Amino acid sequence: MSATFVMAGGGTGGHVIPALAVARELRARGHSPLFVGTERGMEAKLVPQENFPIEWIEIGGLNRVGFKRTLTTLADLPLSIWQASRVLDRAKPAAVFSMGGYVAGPVLLAALWKKLPVVVMEPNAIPGMTHRRLARFVARALLTFPETGRWFPPGRSEVTGRPVREEFFQIPPQPRGSVLTVLITGGSQGSRTLNRAAEESWPLWKNRFVRIFHQTGAAAYEELAPRFRSSGLSGQIAPFFTDMPRVFAEADLIVSRSGSTVTEIAAAGRPSILVPLPTSADQHQLRNAEAMQNAGASRLIPDSEMSGARLVEEIGRMATEPGLLEKMGQAARAMARPGAAARAAEILESFIR
Predict the structure, then answer these.
(1) pLDDT digits (tens, 9 = 90+) for 225-267
(2) Residue 283 class from Cβ within 10 Å (0-12 exposed, 13-18 middle, 19+ buried)?
(3) CATH 3.40.50.2000 matches 4-164+338-349
């Protein structure tokens, strides 16, 4: 029996991209996913590109947005709940799926008011504000980290992981060679801290035993690219790597922020140095990095301590300890959960009446 499912969650790629993976799985099973979002979030670009319908509501953020923005959002909340309620009345979904974020709040409140089942996917070690506040009311919670289960009612959560492209799971273990390949990435927008530390490290690699792949983000690329080329180091610098699974496959070690990238690192089975974004909501990047470090898959360096010298020192220590990188890669892969989108679709189908 085919059904409609409402997909809530937007604003950033970390919310939209996993929801799209679940929506593709639902569509392949004959169902009709319908997105709800705002016209200024990433969903406005990404969802229409994949030919999914989307309905618009008006809402802004509440977490770490300042007093004025908070007041505006609270003033918009009744209207946005009413808009979401109208969407649910027209769509008559079997269930609502949420990746969290400020877009999800009004949709989940309207769904719970109408007694619709709500399935949330929480990719962070600490749930975002929307999922945390509504945790006791959800029908199912799909998690990336086992410790996140303490926020949800007993028996209603399971560890499924976050949807990750299949190419990452297919990356084989990397045998160590004489040259260590290091991937540095701050995500699609880049990271000022990682860009600065990477540049500071270039003259410190005196023995030249490394090859650097560095994703800078578009804003910093024009400034950093000529400097990297004149450094004499081997490797590649780019504003954005379009084929990131290929770059992961070549890397012996990944230096990254600790948002949604941690699930790709786990799927690829690569050791990592994680530098949490200190301004991330509810310090979720710090908690993600701590979970990876506690599993033996990563080393955590606080943003305030990250420098070129610290980067070279940490990589040198890790590379010279026999078997450490291989052991960390195995620990990372043990945290990977393939089939997250398919499992989410199965759970949503269970609510078809």
Answers:
(1) 999 999 989 999 999 888 999 999 999 999 999 988 999 999 9
(2) middle
(3) yes
